[in-house]
C-alpha cells in the first residue's frame, strides 16, 4: 500500500518510514500540517498516519479539513494524548482509528492492515477495473485478458491501474512515477520503460496485439475497445 505519514518528530517519522518501507510499502513523509494537507489532497494514498500535534495545522484540524473536502482515505491518528475524551475527539474529527503513544510498530502495521480491509469492503472508487477485454483486481494484483489470469507485481499493478483509469489517453512517465513510487525516488534510469516492458510481456503473451502503446516523446496509452474503465460486474 501507499502510505502518507504526517509527523513532525524526526525520530518518530524515521522509525515509521523504516518499518513501513521494510514491510513492503511505499511511504511519503510530511513534517507539518499544511504540507501534509496538500499531499493528502492529491489522493494518491491508501491510508494516512497523522500525528495529533503538528506545526502549522494541528492533526485534528487537518483531518476535519480532509473530511470537509470529502477525502475518504482511511486515517490512523497517533498521539500521546490518550484519555477517553481525547480519543473520542479524534474519532469525531474524522479519524478511522486512534493509537496512543508510545506504540509498538507491529500494532501500527496491524491497525493499518485492518483499515485497508475495512476500506475494501466499503463502496467507493473501484479497486476492480474493466477496460475492454482487460480486467484488473487491484487487491489481489491479478489481471485477466479474455479469461487468462495474469499475476502482477506490486508496481506493475499500480502502473496498470493508472493506465486503465486513463484508458485511451496519454499517460506520461511522470504520472506513472507519481502513482507507483514515492516522492524521494530519483528516476535516474529507464525504470518506467523496464516496468512497461515486463507488463507488456505478461499482458500480451499469446495475443497478436499489444494493449500498451508507446506514444513517442509523450508516454504510454492503453488501447482497448472500451475507452472508460468501470467496475467489473460480479460473476454468477
What is the average per-residue confidence, as pLDDT, rounded to a whole number?
A: 85
Structural class: alpha/beta
Name of the top-level CATH class of the largest domain: Alpha Beta
| CATH fold call of the largest domain | Rossmann fold
For the biggest β-sheet, the strand order reads 2-1-3-4-5
Question: In CATH terms, what is the architecture of the largest domain?
Answer: 3-Layer(aba) Sandwich
Helix content: 25-40%
Poorly predicted segments: 121-126, 226-236
Measure the end-to-end span: 30 Å
| Fourth-level CATH superfamily of the largest domain | Response regulator
Please give the radius of gyration in angstroms: 19 Å
Describe this structure in words.
This protein is of the alpha/beta class and 236 residues long. Helix content is 39%, strand content 22%. It is built from 8 helices and 13 strands. The strands form 3 sheets. It has a 5-stranded parallel beta sheet with strand order 2-1-3-4-5, sandwiched between helices. Helix 2 (33-40) packs parallel to helix 3 and helix 6 (154-165) packs across helix 7 (173-180). The protein is elongated. The protein starts with a strand and ends in a 5-residue tail after the last strand.
